[in-house]
Each structure stands twice: as structure tokens, then as C-alpha cells.
Amino acid sequence: MASILKSFLDWLRSLFFKTELELTLVGLQNSGKTTLVNVIASGHFSEDMIPTVGFNMRKVTKGSVTMKLWDIGGQPRFRSMWERYCRGVNAIVFVVDSADYEKLGAAKQELRNLLDKPQLASIPVLVLGNKNDLDDALTVEELIEQMDLKSINNREVSCYSISAKNQVNIDITLQWLIKKGKGSK
């Protein structure tokens, strides 16, 4: 009975109250951050993406939730900016090209460098293994192992395998972001 009442109250709140989330997407260049933002915003995939220079910010509304998405460039010269754009956000989304084995070590190190920053303590992290539409893409279990995610114990960390191109698991990604965003900051 209590869960029915809670569901009803949550539904009533959603009618009258808007939720605003601030999320930062980081990851190495060519991992699919901008593509993911565009798919979340428009529902469409485009092959013609140019590398993000610096950052892009996009506001997206899904139902009663408005998300401010910071898409930060992944080239080495922009990685020093990541911390600044991750401060005070509801969640950090770290996007990994799960089919680019050569960059996994660098991705793991950059994630560690970012999460070692005291100002970012306790901000939840969602690691997305993008490009699961490619034959040689890592599974979620393999990505968790390669990125050593189980050793991160100072915050909540989740990991999903997605394809921004084919819009696979975008729905559960959005559900996670909205759930975590409502409970933090």
C-alpha cells in the first residue's frame, strides 16, 4: 500500500514541479559524447560529427525534467577543463569507445585523474561503453574489468553498454540520470 501511495505522490509532484539536472559528459576524443547528446536531444543519429572544440552546452527537456548537458571536448588539450565543468553537477557521465582497445588505458587513467579531485567527491558517475553495435565492442563486464570500476569506492558508479548510433540502452541511461539527478546536488 505504501508503494502505491508513494507512486501516486511522485506522479502528483511531476505534474506540478519541474526538476532541473546538470550533467557533464566527458571521455576521450571520438568516444561519442556529442553524438549521445544529439540523440538524447533529438532522437536522431548523424554520421557527420566534428570534434568538440572546448565545450558545448545543450538543454533538453524530457517530461518534467530539464537537463543541462555539458559536452566537454576529449582531446588532450581540453582534459584539464573537465574538473571545472564537473564541479557541482548532479552526475558525471564518462563515455568510452568500447571498441577502441588502444585507448582503454588512457580512458581508465583520465577517469582516475578526474575522480581523484577532492571537489568532485561523492558525485555519482555513469560510465557508458558506447559503440556496442560494433562486433568487437567490450561487454559491460569486460568494460568494468578493463576500467577497474569495482575499485572505485568513494561514490556510486554504474556502467552500461550503449549504442548512440542505434539508440540501444539510451532509455535506461536517461532513467539512471534522472534518478541520480533527483537524489543529488
Describe this structure in words.
There is one protein chain. This protein is of the alpha/beta class. The chain has a single domain (19-181), classed as Rossmann fold (3-Layer(aba) Sandwich). Helices cover 34% and strands 23% of the residues. The chain has helices spanning 2-16, 33-42, 82-86, 104-115, 140-146, 170-183, and strands at residues 19-26, 55-62, 65-72, 91-97, 125-130, 157-161. The chain has a 6-stranded mixed sheet, with helices on both faces. The chain is globular and about 50 Å long. 35% of the residues are buried. The model has no long low-confidence stretch (mean pLDDT 90). It is found in: Lysosome membrane.
Structural class call reads alpha/beta
- β content, as a range? 15-25%
User: How many discrete structural domains?
Assistant: 1
What's the number of helices?
Answer: 6
Output mean pLDDT.
90
Order of helices and strands: HEHEEHEHEHEH
Q: Which residues sit in consecutive blocks of at least 5 with pLDDT less than 50?
A: none
Q: Report the CATH architecture.
A: 3-Layer(aba) Sandwich
- What's the CATH class label? Alpha Beta
Tell me, briefly, the overall form: globular
Distance between the termini: 30 Å
Oligomer: single chain
What is the C-alpha radius of gyration, as a whole number of Å?
16 Å
GO molecular function: GTP binding; GTPase activity; metal ion binding
Binding site for Mg(2+): 34, 52
Keywords: Cell cycle, Cell division, GTP-binding, Lysosome, Magnesium, Membrane, Metal-binding, Nucleotide-binding
Family: Belongs to the small GTPase superfamily. Arf family.
